[in-house]
């Protein structure tokens, strides 16, 4: 997805949706995915002030329709060019090709090759590759499962400010995998990633406030972060819906005043984050 404003992102999504529709007409893709997503979308709470969540979810969902459902990554020419650039040591190309092998998009799934490419880019200091290599170690995809090595690479990514690495490191501390269990440390890393807009970390932070793990129980803060998380889960519509449902379940345990306060905090955070994004684009 482009780094421009809302208008640019929506234009990009519309262009991609049109490509998917064209692909479906020729048997090359799933042009009905947009309709499927729109139908599912109405299951969300559309009452204000969740409107900002609805808009962000729609963008994320439609973006996922482009990259995850047969559009964009199956172009043989694109794959060839990516391979050539990766062979010349371009780290962005190595990560892109690793993602293709990891997901079986445009190429046959090859997890060991994905690990190999992630490692090459990770050893050159690329934080996205470091976070992904840690994920492969953590899940045992394409390499023997090794939680200590997973934490090693998550920490390298996290120390560079990478939100994926920060969230994964927080998960490792929460679950006690590769490091001693430490809820306080987990919250520390969740918060760092959450403030950068990582949806999974925002949801984990909400869970921490809900359950009193590493922080005192605070249902208002829990609802705030769960609400925000639904708007910052790119390319993962299923998770966004799950986050929204968990938020709504939590709301049943809160007073109306608490819910209003949580919604106010969520709107304030989204406005502040949008302002930070605009500022970074100007620099």
Question: How would you describe this structure to a colleague?
Answer:
- This protein is mostly helical and 283 residues long.
- The chain has a domain at 73-161: Tetratricopeptide repeat domain (Serine Threonine Protein Phosphatase 5, Tetratricopeptide repeat, Alpha Horseshoe), CATH 1.25.40.10.
- Helices cover 71% and strands 0% of the residues.
- The chain has 14 helices and no strands.
- The protein has helices at residues 6-25, 33-41, 51-67, 76-87, 91-103, 111-123, 127-139, 147-159, 163-175, 183-194, 199-211, 219-229, 237-251, 256-282.
- Helix 10 (183-194) crosses helix 11 (199-211).
- The longest helix is centred in the last third of the chain and has 27 residues, at 256-282.
- The model is unreliable at 5-14 and 16-72 (pLDDT under 50).
Quick take:
The chain has 283 residues and is mostly helical.
Descriptive labels:
mainly alpha; 283 residues; globular; Serine Threonine Protein Phosphatase 5, Tetratricopeptide repeat
CATH architecture of the domain at 73-161: Alpha Horseshoe
User: How many strands appear in the DSSP assignment?
Assistant: 0
Number of helical segments with 4 or more residues: 14
User: Oligomeric state of the chains?
Assistant: single chain
Helix content: over 70%
Compute the CA-based radius of gyration: 20 Å
Specify the structural class: mainly alpha
- CATH first level of the domain at 73-161: Mainly Alpha
Shape: globular
Percent strand equals: under 5%
Q: What summary fits the major beta sheet?
A: none
Series of secondary-structure elements, N-terminal to C-terminal: HHHHHHHHHHHHHH
List low-confidence stretches.
Answer: 5-14, 16-72
Note the gap between the termini. Answer: 19 Å
Give the mean pLDDT: 80
CATH topology of the domain at 73-161: Serine Threonine Protein Phosphatase 5, Tetratricopeptide repeat
CATH superfamily name of the domain at 73-161?
Answer: Tetratricopeptide repeat domain
């Amino acid at each position: 997805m482009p780094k421009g404003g809302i208008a640019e992102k929506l234009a990009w999504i519309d262009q991609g949706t049109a490509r998917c529709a064209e692909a479906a007409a020729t048997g090359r893709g799933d042009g009905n995915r947009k309709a499927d997503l729109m139908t599912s979308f109405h299951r969300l709470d559309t009452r204000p002030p969740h409107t900002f969540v609805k808009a962000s979810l729609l963008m994320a969902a439609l973006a996922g329709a482009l990259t995850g459902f047969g559009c964009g990554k199956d172009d043989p020419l694109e794959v060839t060019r990516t391979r050539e650039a990766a062979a010349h040591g371009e780290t962005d190309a190595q990560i892109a090709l690793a993602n293709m092998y990891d997901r079986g998009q445009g190429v046959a799934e090859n997890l060991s090759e994905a690990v190999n490419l992630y490692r090459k880019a990770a050893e050159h200091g690329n934080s996205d590759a470091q976070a992904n290599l840690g994920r492969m170690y953590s899940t045992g995809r394409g390499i023997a499962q090794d939680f200590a090595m997973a934490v090693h690479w998550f920490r390298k990514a996290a120390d560079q400010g990478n939100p994926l690495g920060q969230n994964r490191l927080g998960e490792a501390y929460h679950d006690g995998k590769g490091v001693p269990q430490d809820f306080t440390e987990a919250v520390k890393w969740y918060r760092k990633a959450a403030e950068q807009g990582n949806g999974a970390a925002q949801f984990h932070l909400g869970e921490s406030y809900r359950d009193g793990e590493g922080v005192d129980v605070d249902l208002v803060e829990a609802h705030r972060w769960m609400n925000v998380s639904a708007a910052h889960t790119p390319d993962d519509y299923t998770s966004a819906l799950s986050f929204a449902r968990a938020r709504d379940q939590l709301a049943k345990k809160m007073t109306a005043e608490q819910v209003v306060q949580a919604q106010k905090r969520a709107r304030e955070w989204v406005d502040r984050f949008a302002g930070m994004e605009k500022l970074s684009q100007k620099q």
